[in-house]
Specification:
The chain is of the alpha+beta class. 18% of the residues lie in helices and 25% in strands. A hairpin with a 5-residue loop joins strand 6 and strand 7. InterPro entries: Cu_polyphenol_OxRdtase, Cu_polyphenol_OxRdtase_sf, Cytotoxic_necrot_fac-like_cat.
Length: 244
């Protein structure tokens, strides 16, 4: 089992039956640019290293590993479907998980501990309303005031520059878009995620405030790796499970 110091735990008021965490890049067996706790099996790391790293995680045997495609596809677990970018379940012992390396991981639960969810919210997912779709499916019978959301480590606005065209859809959100050059803007993904959560009445929103790009010893960052001339990088995972 991985050392608990290598994991982040949400500081929120979820029921005791809900367990949640997000990994760092610390505490695994992978080498070089994947050092050391890479959990992505699609990034060029050795398969045996990835499998060994995954086996270190709490509740690893209960995790459904998604094939994430930056979509707004939401999956109810358990399911044979694994291509999508958000998952939810009301079943005990079924872990919801999403991998990230700059995009926003969001873990959700209700205050009664009935349903848990995990969302991979990048530029495309936020643009196609993956948060709203997840809340509407997973918590259709619950009031937003009963929901908790935790935003895990992701790339901060100081390091996330995109084209003005890509950011245009978020222009109505105060604080989300900052001009940075000709045809370029800096995008605040957390502002967007918070705005979209609040639009579906989720008010209890918590966050690490950690930037994956700037905290190199703690987190993988796809954009930082590309800026350093590397083809790819490792992935972290954010996990939530309803225990008996």
């Amino acid at each position: 089992m991985i050392n608990s110091d290598a994991l982040l735990r949400p500081d929120w008021q979820a029921p005791e039956t809900i367990e949640a965490y997000s990994t760092t890049r610390i505490g695994g067996l992978s080498k070089d640019e994947f050092g050391s706790l890479n959990l992505g099996d699609h990034v060029g790391d050795l398969t045996e290293s990835v499998n060994a790293n995954r086996a270190l995680l709490p509740h690893h045997e209960s995790i459904t590993w998604l094939t994430q495609i930056h979509s707004n596809t939401v999956i109810s677990l358990p399911s044979e479907q694994s291509v999508g970018d958000a998952v939810y379940t009301s079943e005990v012992g079924v872990a919801c998980a999403v991998m990230t390396a700059d995009c926003v991981p969001i873990l959700m639960a209700d205050k009664h501990g009935q349903t848990v969810a995990a969302i991979h919210a990048g530029l495309k997912g936020l643009g196609s309303q993956i948060i709203q779709r997840t809340v509407e499916r997973a918590y259709a019978r619950q009031n937003g005031a009963q929901l908790l959301a935790w935003i895990g480590p992701h790339i901060g606005p100081n390091h996330y520059e995109v084209s003005s065209q890509d950011a245009e859809i978020f222009g109505h959100i105060d604080g989300a878009v900052t001009p940075s050059g000709v045809g370029k803007v800096r995008l605040n993904l957390e502002f967007i995620a918070r705005y979209q959560l609040q639009s579906v009445d989720v008010r209890a929103v918590f966050s690490t405030g950690h930037c994956t790009y700037s905290r190199e010893t703690e987190y993988f960052s796809y954009r930082r790796s590309r800026h350093q001339g590397m083809e790819n990088c490792g992935r972290m995972v954010s996990v939530i499970i309803k225990r008996a």
